[in-house]
What does this fold into?
Amino acid sequence: MNETYRISPETEDIAAAIEQACELMERFYEDGRYSKVTVLRHWSKHNPTISGKIARPGAYRWYLRRELYKLAAKGAEIEITQSQPRIDLNSPNLLTAIDESEFDQTRKKVFLFGPERVELSLERLEHYTGTRAEDFQRFVFLTNYHMHMDAFRKLHPNSIESSRPDVQMPTLHSVSPDSNGLTIVNIGVGPSNAKNFTDHLAVLRPDAMLMIGHCAGIRNHQEIGDFVLATSYMRDDHVLDDTLPRSVPVTPSFLFNRSLARVLEERKLPYRIGVVYTTADRNWELAISRKLADLKASRSIGVDMESATVAANGFRYRIPSASLLCVSDKPLHGSPKLPRAANDFYQATKSLHIEIAEEAINGIRSVFPDGLPTTDLRAMDDPLLGCPC
It folds into this structure.
């Protein structure tokens, strides 16, 4: 029997009704089927009725609860029914079902991704991190240094850790009610890893993601240990060129940057804002004549290998992002990254780096409890549950 559950404008206890809807979607999933969510928005002239299919709702229940509540509170009618059987991830039809070659991310629908894509991405996340998708929190730190993981663990000794030591992307979850805690993931080095992880993270709809890393300082008046906040990115990573043209401007979240800058200023720490140049070439210094023209023309202040990739995928998937980088070397000024100096720098900054990031998130939580506003990431006709309104 195809069970149907409806929430109408006459529903008295909206919060309880949304909880019941979430319970039903999880039961459908456990019974081997996806849920179909249909939303009738009386206030919309052009797209009053939209629908979408939901997979594994328990992994992002906090998000469904929040977004569906906002709709119902505004007077929308919501209907939950059973949809098609869950896909077998070993099926030869899987790749056809998740093919995003012609994916119109601005087409109005209830959820940004189809259920098959969600299924695969959650499995991939669990494989890479050795943790359950349900344990991911609303705010996600990305790093490529084990020392940042150690610093996070000291601050949050009760964090959920990867279930095995040989995972590709070690992960820690400092869990809070309603998934309002912090997750940190060591994604490894380079734009390919950054794209891979954020492709899959996107299905969980985090409120924000922050790249915590190091960069080469480009300007004369930067010192080793100074912080860098990106205001925009020079995309020399190329991994998303076919999906997001390089002519599209990509910037970090202004509100996220503002929170980070406030913390740096309150702590009286030196920092600089400007363009971050992200390259796929770890040894870019060995071809400096080719890179220097781009660095000068873009007025870049730092070079790294992940920030622009994270920001570009944040733009594609409507996830606010920012970069908190620290100058670790100055190869254009006779200070390349060498073992002894690098190790001293790492030990001096690893805990401070995480503390600044967490303090900035605390500020965001207090001002924006429902997530950072993302109107700057939304297209003219965007997915309803693409990101917080």
